[in-house]
Amino acid sequence: MVNKSMFDACRNTVAVIVVSLLFGLSSAHAQDWKATGHFGWFGIGKAFQIEEGHFYWVGEFSGTFFSDKGEGGLFHLAGIKCPAWYDLDVNKGTTAAGGYCIVTDIEGDQAYLTWNNTGTAGPGGRGPGTFEYTGGTGKYAGISGKNRFVGITQVNWADGTTSGYATWNR
Question: What is the CA angle 33-71-77, rounded to 5?
């Protein structure tokens, strides 16, 4: 037979466990990993002509992220390097791209993500897409979530490089 003090002790223990779980879960998800802003990038690599008007590029997009929140915003002024591929078909007016990114903040903490997009060809071409965090170090350990972005190509240079920017979560 269970006496009242044992029952109260069990009830209190269960209450503490439930509250701990609730607070533990809410704090684990309290961080909003939605960086909002823009990433100015320069792409350097090698372009291969597949056919007339169709090119396949492999290389790296790199640059800086500018948070809409400014100082203290997620990834504000972080450096970004993205090993990637880019399929440009001027004949069809389409693009597709994808790869990985390493985001490194001023303290040296890193976030890792994978991304892909499809879009329209040409200067000013827009490529909406998504990215998903795959891990991180330091303050980004445990980072997770899916995000959206739009990549905008400003210039495809004659030397095979490219310039542009991407808006994140806008």
Answer: 75
Tell me which DSSP letter residue 19 carries. Answer: H
Residue corresponding to tokens 């909406």: 128
At 160, the pLDDT band (50, 70, 90 cuts) reads confident
Q: What does the radius of gyration of the chain's CA atoms come to, in whole angstroms?
A: 23
Round to whole Å and give the CA distance between 92 and 78. Answer: 35
Q: How far apart are CA 58 and CA 63, in angstroms?
A: 17
**Residue 26 near residue 46 (C-beta atoms within 8 A):** no
Residue range 21-63, pLDDT digits in tens = 444 433 334 478 999 999 999 999 999 999 999 999 999 999 9
Between the alpha carbon of residue 69 and those of residues 21, 89, 132, the distances in Å are 31, 36, 21
143 contacts 154 by C-beta, under 8 angstroms: no
Alpha-carbon 132 to chain mean position: 6
